[in-house]
Specification:
The protein is of the alpha+beta class. The chain has 3 helices and 5 strands, in the order αβββααββ. Bound molecules: guanosine-5'-monophosphate. Guanosine-5'-monophosphate (5GP) binds next to β2.
């Protein structure tokens, strides 16, 4: 058995973390180390997909739900414009291997694509 991911532990209430929104299959939290005025994470409740390529192959409908949920959150927490970023692999900066999207919004002025 592998250990539950940090996001699964937040979802389960095992470690602190405010769930700011959820659907039946997704939840959202604020990133603990924000890289923009609004920096949210949108996370499938299942941790069976390690990254977005696995999610797209395994459950494309859930990926579509994730993007729609992200759009709603960006409208609620900022002006509706946002960057949606998935890091894929440790060399690209992925540190949690439970698929999640970064929503970056609010006062984004540079063209940088990094999260
Ligand atoms: P990754 O680098 O895998 O794309 O993104 C993981 C993100 O999770 C990082 O931006 C990191 O700041 C965030 N993170 C790591 N641990 C915690 C935590 O315990 N609580 C919250 N809210 N965010 C976390």
């Amino acid at each position: 058995m592998t250990e539950p991911s940090i996001f699964t532990r937040i979802l389960g209430g095992d470690i602190p973390g405010e769930i700011i929104a959820e659907t039946d299959r997704l939840f959202a939290i604020r990133d603990i180390a924000p890289q923009a005025p609004v920096h949210l994470l949108v996370i499938p409740k299942t941790e069976q997909y390690r990254d977005v390529t696995e999610l797209a192959a395994g459950d494309p409908a859930l990926l579509a739900e994730l993007t729609a949920f992200a759009k709603d959150l960006a409208a609620e927490h900022s002006d509706g414009d946002f960057r949606l970023i998935f890091n894929i692999g440790a060399n690209a900066g992925q540190t949690v291997f439970h698929v999640h999207a970064h929503i970056l919004a609010g006062g984004l002025t540079e063209k940088s694509v990094g999260a």
